[in-house]
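Journal club prep, shared notes

We agreed each person brings one worked example of a sequence with its structure written out as tokens. Mine is HAT C-terminal dimerisation domain-containing protein. I'm keeping it raw so we can talk through how to read the token line rather than staring at a rendered picture. Sequence first:
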Amino acid sequence: MKEGILIYLQNKKKYDDDTRRTDDTFTMPKKKAVRLEVKNILERVVQNDSFKENVDNIENNSDSSSLKSDLTLQKELQMQIQQDMNTWSINTKKKKEKDYDKTLRKEMTACESEGVRGKYLSSIHEYLLTIKPTSVEAERAF
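Then the structure, token by token:
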């Protein structure tokens, strides 16, 4: 699936030719499947990045507040912050899911017509390029 997304992002003409091909040896995923997989990857990547930033901010704030307050008060505040973050992340996650779908549709349409990747498609492309390729060609020689 990841290969199909990379081909879609790098070379639209090759992707279109491969999807029209009747040979079932290596089938390309449909655009809807590509969009759904890109959305899933995007949600994981963006969620992990934003979670790390929030944890760093909370840790920095807790260091300075620990000097000023009691340990029990600090624990109470930390629990309240964590509870608020959980409810906030649930609400924003639902909202982002819809936003990602709409935005990805627009970006994919613009990418197909103009050839320019949008913000999210570019970030997914960069993310997929970080995956190290695996090959069995070297093993076939033996």
